[in-house]
Amino acid sequence: TEVPVLVGQKTRVQQYSAKLLHGPEQTLTTIPGSFLGPVIRLQKGQKVRIHLHNQLSENTITHWHGLHVPAEVDGHPMYAISPGQTFVYEFEVVNRACMAIYHPHPHEATATQVYHGLAGAIIVNDEEETALGLPSGEFEIPIVIQDKLFDGQNQLIYSPGMHGSMFGFYGNRILVNGHPETQLDVASRAYRLRFLNGSTARIYKLAWDDGTPITVLGVDGGLLEQPENMPYVMLAPGERLDVWADFSNRSVGSQLVMRSLAFSGVVPAMGRGMMSSEAYGLPVGSDYAIFTARITKKVTDSPKLPSTLSKISRYSIGDTHNPNKPVPITISEGHMQMLLNGRPHAYNDVQDSERIPLNTIQLMEISHEQSGGHGMGGMGMGRGMGGMGRGGMGMMGGMMAMAHPIHLHGQAFQIVSRSIGSANEGGYATVNQGFINSGLKDTVLVMPGETVRIIKPFQDYKGLFMFHCHNLEHEDMGMMREFLVE
Ligand code: C2O
Ligand code: CU
Ligand code: CU
């Protein structure tokens, strides 16, 4: 399949457009009236070639978030192309069925490009999934959630400034598939809703307004083994969620609202007061609607929810290369310097702990820097804060503590354990029933004070693979490192 993906500038909105040169029907579907890129549908085993034509007036490169592809076509910032240039991607789809994302990845400009419109969904199918007969066609609906800030002329505003860089930039309106106040007209039957959080920083606590549990079919890396009913689901930037939404017992004229419920603990109190969205009335962790499903048509037959969905091949800690010495991914938070492993993003700056032997399974531990435990993080890097160096960061760090969606390129990982420090239990209790730890993930929301252990394979491809915070303001600030697989 050959798909040219063009990026171009339309006044203040940047857009992906794509048209199919040749290949199977249905490879591209445009979401009507949306500025989002078309949905790219791929089949496991398919070989694809994609031409990225840069029609922006700035550099860009596209990353296939969630797809396991060679390093040279993974959208590493070092491959960013200039205006007018073309980058040709060629890879085989080796992933199992899943929803992935394509979005730009140039260093220091990812957030602004995604915000202005450059993002799209990729849906990968495979035989195992097809055999399940899940709702498809018009009954399978992508739900891309983004928040945006608009001015009086309904033009996008993106002005993170210092506080937006530290705490994330938040909009005053919620868009679904590029539209505000989304209403989905549905029939009284089961649907498959494919959620993607395409916001730069906003975290959602998704729930149906009448208390119906959310029936989860899958997450980032594809289907769960069996459906799971959740009271609510946390969805952080970069995460995906596959939902079975059954409207079959609902009457015509009724409606069901998906909301983001109230929660706390993801942004520090001092940060919240400074965020622009507070003034505009949509604070992070407040309760607001995402979209409304309105039942407009009675139908009599509906597919049945399968009791088994998939078989996930799992690794245990004993299968890992380093059962007693997890690879560290350390989060440190300071004034204008959110870092991973104590260092900002820099090309060719791979530390010993960031070198991974090819074809190994690695135990990894994502945790927060212990206050005062890291002498050189701020100062040694020449990015110190004068009198407020790392030593003074303990208290500062506590005040700034916030949640970070940590994303690792390459193959999906398993979550083996999560533990929360006692100082952060309060906020944690408002979110922790919304984590789905049973599926394969590529992005995990790490709460303040939380330690998450994961098992991740590094197979097939050598080279540099990014890992970073998917709060895109943090990523652009340098909260991004790379593993060298060798
Ligand atoms: Cu979705 Cu490296 O990003
Ligand atoms: Cu990615
Ligand atoms: Cu972050």
From TrEMBL:
Keywords on record: Metal-binding, Oxidoreductase
GO cellular component, as recorded: outer membrane-bounded periplasmic space
Keyword Metal-binding among record annotations: yes
Keyword Transmembrane helix among record annotations: no
Molecular functions (GO terms): copper ion binding; oxidoreductase activity
Pfam family, one: Cu-oxidase_2
InterPro entries: Cu-oxidase-like_N (IPR011707), Cu-oxidase_C (IPR011706), Cu-oxidase_fam (IPR045087), Cu_oxidase_CS (IPR033138), Cu_oxidase_Cu_BS (IPR002355), Cupredoxin (IPR008972), TAT_signal (IPR006311)
Highest rank taxon of the organism: Bacteria
PANTHER family reported in the protein's UniProt record: MULTI-COPPER OXIDASE, MULTICOPPER OXIDASE LPR1
Protein name: Blue copper oxidase CueO
Organism from which the protein derives: Crenothrix polyspora
